[in-house]
## 1
Amino acid sequence: MKRVYNFSAGPSMLPLPVLEQAAAEMTDVRGSGQSAMEMSHRSGDFKPIIENTEALLRSLMGIPANYRVLFLQGGASLQFSMIPLNLAGTEAGAPKKKASYVETGIWAKKAAEEGAKYVDICVRASSKDRLYTYIPSPPAANPEDAYYHITLNNTIVGTRWTELPQTGPVPLVADISSAILSEPLEVSRFGVLYAGAQKNLGPAGTTVVIIREDLIGKAPSWTPLLLRYDIHAQEASLYNTPPCYGIYIIGLVLEWLKDLGGVPAIAELNRQKAALFYGYLEQSRLFRSPVEPAFRSLMNITFVPRMAESGERANLERRFIQEAAAQGLVNLAGHRLVGGMRASLYNAMPLEGVKALIRFMEDFEKKERGGVRVSHTNHE
Ligand SMILES: Cc1ncc(COP(=O)(O)O)c(C=O)c1O
């Protein structure tokens, strides 16, 4: 069997035991005589699957009883529309409500742009001035806001919030697509949390929304049915056919995480993996992190060559990505909008994978430094 270390930002690696269990159960899930792809979503066979997935998520994240968990489709991007529509949408002709956004990256910007179609949004702070390499200090919420939106982990540049903004009674809404289950999170600090599954949860196609009950049921009458949280909540995510197979795999991933010791245990491992990799970058004379140390992501670690000349840099990046792939270290190219390199170290990336990448980088660096001249600029 060939397995690579896949450093993709998503879809990304799933734990091998999960894939093996899914393979073993492919034709017969728990004595049902069917795969999880073939079951009616309203059958007695699927009911325990979705209920178990929700129960595991509730217990691993410590989700309080007054929050609903919804399994939806449309990716995190659809939440960029559902959040403003459901939390602050207004009837035709009525003045728009207000909401605050903090722009910490390209996804945060997209969320704000989509929100602006339905709501009078205010971008309260932005880190665009330094290419999103830090988290700006956020102003407190405006009491008139219907909600306050942040992106907890910024997948593209590789930053993360370490302190939440003070929003008082204004519901804090967070995109946790690339952060979910990577570290403990106090769910009760938030009104809504949402995440596409394809990083720490399972296959693409399922979106998890965790929403405080009192925020459900505020959508204006013209809201398309499938975009209404109240419809999905009333029907326990079964208003229409949910992404059944994705929900099944998420359940297996959550079982795996529970057996490992849950979020505290994986958070410890994640800190260890990130510390090892950032530690390597700090002493490397060839590569550096472009992100301010206080805001460095544990999940998505970006790095760039230290040399100043852009042609030389692009050349080195290309060689690096190709040679790494040849060694089974794949998907290390940075996001197409920012370039450079990125290693995503989600929950399923084993410590061994990080060590293998560092070993490769050390060898690559030795080889480069033996041949090509490397400048030692540490700024930029
Ligand atoms: C933080 C964040 N938000 C939103 C998205 C968009 O997610 P989707 O493709 O599920 O719509 C991504 C995708 O990588 C992301 O990393």
Note: DSSP finds nine helices and 14 strands in the chain.
## 2
Amino acid sequence: MSSVSTKQGANRRKAIARKLEKLDKKHVWHPFTQMSDWGNEEQTIIESGSGSVLTDINGNTFIDGVSSLWVNVHGHRKKEIDGAVAAQLKKIAHSTLLGLSNVPAVLLAEKLIQIAPAGLSRVFYSDNGSTAAEIALKMAFQYWQQKGPEYRSKTGFISLKEAYHGDTLGSVSVGGIDLFHEVYKPLLFDTYTIDSPHCYRCALGKSYPDCRMACADQAEEVMGKHCDETAALIMEPLVQGAAGMLMSPPGYLRRMRELCTKYHILMIADEVATGFGRTGTMFACEQEGVTPDIMAVAKGITGGYLPLAATLTTEDLYRGFLGEYRELRTLFHGHTYTGNPLACAAALASIDLFKKDKTIARLQPKIALLSKQLKRFEGLKHVGEVRQKGFMVGVELVRQKETKESYPVEDKIGIRVIKEARNQGLIIRPLGNVIILMPPLSITAAQLKRLANIAYESIKKVTEDS
Ligand SMILES: Cc1ncc(COP(=O)(O)O)c(C=O)c1O
């Protein structure tokens, strides 16, 4: 190619990039984004991806440090998933699950049950994590309504402070992050709340392990007091992700399972963020030998390719919905794209890859490498705590280490750190003052080191040089 045509090509590319940037600012309303800031700043528009690397319309490359919002598992443009979606496209892109079935949805249900905690046997599809949680709430509520008149008072839910289960109103009702949820309070139903098992900022002012998990005792008190009015406890197993990667102490999840059984409260495990290898096992519940009554999954289910979610439950709960047509024991819920064949084909390929690529086994040394890399973060002047469970990491930034004083919202400290990281070739997203690192499980050791280095340098530069 002549240098003239190369130059022309580059100019054309630049012109297209400027046009896209303009159009984005003119028409797109971005989620969880203050749009008056967005309009004034330079933005990154992604055009392609490969493995753990994203490329923008200007040809800049970045490590995908949050797995495209916690979904990507085996990398972008993974041959096997690309192939499975392409093959399915040649058959059919979509048909409904209402009154019909489709091949990938059937096969995927079987696969999900094979890998899920033992005892779960039924799969109800939807298309995102919020709806998977919403469906779990409706299932639990309706189950008790149909069980018999003596259970009709079991209409409430127990939720955790700092919880996040999505953005639909039911999911927001059981959420506990004031920053996101406070404004919608008048629209929500009340829940019985229990403290988050968050040791760095313990609500009971205790310290682990001397506390002997006093937060679980407090949870028992609430359960004992309200069990007759409670349909279910909903919780994120092991890690409260959106709250800033808050890790529960060992045994907490198991204890919640035991308490739910003791007080006849259904247990809903929201594995939307933790599922599909994120915590180092296929599901977080496995780590404490827990089978919930209902389990919500989404995000990593398709390997990060397409929107799909599922709410899994037990045979006992499922049977509670069976009866004569006229009894109206049907679960009255369903979305247009429920069980979409393309998404199910991607999910089938992704689950097969776990076996073929030995994803979980190969992840273990990378988890150890990440832990090693994170050690030095603790020495930074404004890092209060580094939290890690598998490939879920939260680095909490504090104004004052000794007092754990938080940065005020207006400092935008997290946003400033991720902007610096982006300048250095890493895409990450903060949750308030917590820097989140959540790369694809397939990231290479070299990329993982680079990710940690950029995150470290960005935190240091923003918090210590300004
Ligand atoms: C635990 C948990 N539940 C539910 C959701 C909502 O999922 P979605 O954004 O797909 O609606 C999220 C999203 O981050 C989550 O972390």
Note: The chain has a mean pLDDT of 96.
